[in-house]
Amino acid sequence: MLGLDLSTGVDGVVEKLEKLPKDLFAETLQSILVNLWDQNGAVDLIESCDKFQRAGISLDQKTVQDIMRLMSYYFRLAAKSNLSGDVLVSKLTECSSNWSKPTLQLVHQLWTEHAALLHAHQEVLTMASIGQLVDIQWKLGMAVSSDTCRSLNSPFISVLMKIADTSGEMSYKSFEMTVQQFQNFYRQFKEMASVLETV
């Protein structure tokens, strides 16, 4: 229905999150919002499970993951569509009637506090169309046959990069470099690393 893979369906997830203490749920929502703004990967599921355990809440890892997925989905939707807190709450009540008024008020409050920042960040990402490097693979090869004989028996470096665009779609970019090009590439990365150390 939502394109979400939830083990117990939306109603089941909402029932579970309604049992959480409001301060713990607020902390969970904060970490999801920070993650959406920061784009640093995923919310740490193990850390969240540990927080719940320390608070005396025994939820299995799958349930915690479902709560994170559901709220991330709606916050991401709200950021991309520039939804107000009222519209976000309306969307949540459309997907399940199990939401309590205090929980919806908490979601509304946190979204209202963070919406402008997240929407601005989303616009910058969309405008700049900045992708995120997910993985890089390389291998050293030796040219043994070629249309141009002068490059035979020359070493080369083949690079494959996996990139996530702003919508989350994965794309792959590959290229080859001569040893000299690779050495220049390496020098530039070394320069970037030394500049980053000063920040």
Describe the structure.
- It contains 7 helices and 3 strands, in the order H-H-H-H-H-H-E-E-E-H.
- Strands 1-2-3 form a 3-stranded antiparallel beta sheet.
- The chain is α+β, with helices and mostly antiparallel strands and 199 residues long.
- The longest helix has 28 residues, at 101-128.
- The mean pLDDT is 81.
Using brief descriptors, characterize the structure shown:
alpha+beta, three-stranded antiparallel beta sheet, 3 strands, 15% strand, elongated
Helicity range? 55-70%
- Major beta-sheet overview: 3 strands, antiparallel
Instruction: Outline the low-pLDDT stretches.
Output: none
Strand order of the largest sheet: 1-2-3
What's the total number of strands? 3
User: What characteristic shape results from the CA principal axes?
Assistant: elongated
Q: Mean of the pLDDT scores?
A: 81
Report strand %: 15-25%
